[in-house]
Amino acid sequence: MSYKVPDQTRIGHVHLKVSDLERSLKFYRDLLGFSVMQHYGTSAVFISAGGYHHHIGLNTWHSKNAGPAPTNGVGLYHTAILYPTRKDLAEVLKRLLDAGHPITGFADHGVSEAIYLNDPDRNGVELYWDKPKEQWPLDANGKLEMITEALDVDNLLAELEK
Questions:
Q1: DSSP conformational letter for 55
Q2: Cα separation of 38 and 5, whole Å?
Q3: CATH code, domain carrying 113
Q4: How many other CB atoms sit within 10 Å of the CB of residue 150?
Q5: Do the domain assignments include residue 5?
Q6: 3-class secondary-structure state, position 81
Q7: What pTM did the predictor assign?
Q8: Domain that holds residue 42
C-alpha cells in the first residue's frame, strides 16, 4: 500500500452521545472551560477552544436519558484534549481537584503528561500536554519509545507558582 495520509492531517473533532446535555455542559463548559459555539435545537451543542467551529459535539439524538457508557465493550476509549502548556494542564488539574471531580489516573508517557478522568456519562477523557519533541524518549535505534510511569502531580501543580 503506497498511500500515506498527509502530514498536515489532524483529528478535527469528536462527537459524543450523552444522556443529558446540560449535565455534560456543566462538565465540558463550566469545569473544563470550553466555549459554546452553537446549540443545535435542544438535542445537540457544539463547543470549542479559541473560536474554532467545534472541537467537541455533544448530542442526545440516540442517547437521551440512557445509562452510562459501558466500561467493558467496544467504543471510544477516551477523548484526548491537548493543552498548549504544562501550566495550562496544571490549571485544569487544580480546577478538577477544587471541584472534587474524580480522577481515574495520572501518567507520564515520556512524550506527554496526562490526567485521566470520566465525563458525567463515563466517557473517558484524557487531559494532557506534549513535552518538547527533543525530550521524547528514544530506544537505542532512535525509535520512539513511549512509556507509562507515575506522574509527579505535586511537581505539575508547582507550575502554578511560577
A1: S
A2: 31
A3: 3.10.180.10
A4: 8
A5: no
A6: strand
A7: 0.93
A8: 11-66
